[in-house]
Amino acid sequence: MIAELFRKVLGRGRSINRPKLTIHAVKRHGIRREDISPCALRVTESLQKAGFEAFVVGGAVRDLLIGRAPKDFDVATNATPEQVKKVIRRSRIIGRRFQIVHALCNDEVVEVSTFRALQAAPEDDQAADEHGRLIRDNVFGSQEEDALRRDFTVNALFYDPNKEEVWDYFDGLGDIRAKRLRMIGEPAQRYREDPVRMLRAVRFAAKLGFTIDKAARKPILELADLLSNVPSARLFDEMLKLLLSGHSVECLRQLRTEGLHHGLLPLLDVVLDEPEGARFVELALSNTDKRIAEDKPISPGFLFASLLWHQVRLGAARIESQGELPTPALYLAMDEVLDAQKEKLAIPRRFDAVMKEIWSMQQRFMQRGGQRPYRLLEHPRFRAAFDFFVLRAASGEVDQDIARWWEDFQHADDTEKEAMLVVEDKPKRRRKRGPRRKKPAGENSSTALDTHSKHTQPDEDDLDD
Ligand code: ATP
Ligand code: MG
Hints:
Layout: H1 2-9, E1 22-24, H2 26-29, H3 38-49, E2 54-57, H4 59-66, E3 74-77, H5 81-87, E4 91-94, E5 100-105, E6 108-114, E7 116-117, E8 139-140, H6 143-148, E9 157-160, E10 165-168, H7 172-177, E11 180-181, H8 187-193, H9 196-208, E12 211-212, H10 214-223, H11 232-243, H12 248-257, H13 268-273, H14 275-293, H15 300-321, H16 326-344, H17 352-361, H18 372-378, H19 382-394, H20 400-411, H21 414-420, H22 426-431
Parallel strand pairs: 3-6, 11-12
Antiparallel strand pairs: 1-10, 2-3, 2-9, 4-5, 5-6, 7-8, 9-10
The structure holds adenosine-5'-triphosphate (ATP) and magnesium ion (MG).
């Protein structure tokens, strides 16, 4: 009792009472040993045989209880990383700040982490920043402490495959049945410790079809700004998880409802406010969700290219109206948009090349004469650029007929291809012999991306040639 009072006064504990552990037998939860992946089974068995505690934990238990196939299996144990390494032969310790162990079996990797306490030692006054955000949480702890440091009750369930028991400290099982996301501890304090939990709440709600309970929901709007203190690389990872959750449309809708979309993808607000841009983004996202449902691969570069496309178009049009030629205007706009993103949401540079390629190839779909369509078809990024073009057509930005033409052209034989070529491109080849004439500023009546025009622009060069 006194110890508990101490914990509260020192701010180390929670304003909830000490959790009460309930152990559910299989008849109450229904998870069988066979539902666990062979690798996770092997890891828990080996650790238990060596005298340690070992449980499957987190998302996998939650997903099994809901009746979904888990994405991956994590194991929590009271063995230290070195001890785990000794017990599991094919394993390696990773991470510096807080070490975990990757256990490897065939093509499966299971993450094994040692039970951890929520906070650093009391003497560590550098453990949080001035907003209360935890910078360090690297202290080993008991299973109970490990449960306490987790975010939602439904994510804090431990499954023992040997006994087929679910260990539940916060009635997570009840919350799963009620389809409810309930925060462990005091929600505002937990969001302050780690503002990313606000995004996690939205992602899980959208993905699982759960409601965020009132107490967990209430502080979000007020604390949303704390997300700006989160390192941008982490924000990016979380944003990507959200977009690739298979429920991105719903996630985005909820982000807006909770007032969390500001500052995440800073330009997204603008995009979603423009009917044309919004339609394109929505189509791109529902297309992504569909691909995930069908187990097809997703390219984050493609996704970010879609989210930022409208800004690129607007930027290019603005720069052109100031007298720049279409192609340089497009390139300037691409850089402008990517730079603006970098400040807030570090889209890693490795995606820049893909995005730029997809964007810059768009105007080449308008050129359907001579050798150009053949060359475009051979471009290594053709597929992505074409899919992007199809989305633009579907959103009404470009002529559907042209997208259909490209669909047919790809599958046509040589003779058919020849017959399909569009003759308007001919003057372009003639012009190549003479010196180039640059249009004076302001004479351009169409932009590089104004692709409703059936004619190609004689001044435009192939961007990749
Ligand atoms: P997913 O299906 O998206 O992988 P998950 O619940 O497994 O969902 P992870 O990010 O893989 O989520 O994290 C594993 C577990 O670690 C969570 O279930 C939760 O218990 C804990 N956890 C992860 N991130 C946090 C956080 N920011 N704060 C508290 N606990 C967290
Ligand atoms: Mg997980």
